[in-house]
Amino acid sequence: MTPSDTSGSPGDGRWSDLERPPLNAAALRRGLVRPGGLWTELEVVRATGSTNTDLVTRARAGAPEGAVLIAEEQTAGRGRLDRTWTAPARSGLFFSILLRPGGAGVPTERWGWLPLLAGVAAAGALSRTAGVDTTLKWPNDLLVKVEGEERKFGGILAERAGDAVVIGMGLNVSLRAGELPVPTAGSLALADAITTDRDPLLRAVLRSIAEWYGEWRRFGGDPGASGLQDAYAAGCATLGRLVRAELPGGRERVGEAVAIDRDGRLVLATEGGVQEPVSAGDIVHLRSVSREE
Description:
- The protein is about 20% helix and about 30% strand.
- By secondary structure, it is an alpha+beta fold.
- The protein has two domains: about 25-235, Bira Bifunctional Protein, Domain 2 (BirA Bifunctional Protein, domain 2, 2-Layer Sandwich); about 240-285, SH3 type barrels (Roll).
- The strands form three sheets. A seven-stranded mixed β-sheet has the order 1-2-5-9-8-7-6, with helices on both faces. It has a five-stranded antiparallel β-sheet with strand order 13-12-11-10-14.
- The longest helix is centred in the C-terminal third of the chain and has 21 residues, at about 200-220.
- The chain starts with about 25 loop residues before the first helix and ends in a 5-residue tail after the last strand.
- GO terms for molecular function: ligase activity.
- Keywords: Biotin, Ligase.
């Protein structure tokens, strides 16, 4: 479902929660869609099943790089491993972007860095704009601290669509404790953000993605030369922790997370000093590792 573009008229019922005004689509376009910039079109819809599903369909039909689709509410949002992502209308930022890195000469083997790039860009933008320390949990979760406890408040999902990559992001902005999908989740509001105004938050995230994407493309997708690999490692809360990697096929590995390699994989130092890269799986943070142990 992809309803028509909306931009926030006070008389249409979308103001039922006065603390959660609708996004201003026209203002977002004025601030983000500019000649020569990455963002080429931007649409805000009242509700849809999944912005990623919709944008993948458009990508296959030839939609341009830089298309942005934002939903005030997702009824069938998806996370990694086909997990669902639900939240009250206008309580967060739920959007997808369409990128065509091959057009800039970036080889396909480096496209796996795109969700990590989006995480670096979002974490930096939200830390600055919301005034909340935002960190990354490998591979694509965003964390904040709520009453001293690390909690996930955002996630990223990347999908290939021919020569395009669609990256979806869901961020809990104003969710209250009683609205959390699970008690261990968080939101910017619960982390005492200095603002939960979604318009400037979204502008900051999209501008940051455009900056990082431009630099990454300039270096042919090289994560080292573009600074992306170091930036991800610097903001990754997983590194330096003892973790359990829950791998496909029901396998598990326990070890210290010691590095992010050039392929974006998490490197674990397991028993016996063996270093093992993990390319996919769920990571459970167990505890920090003391270098004196």
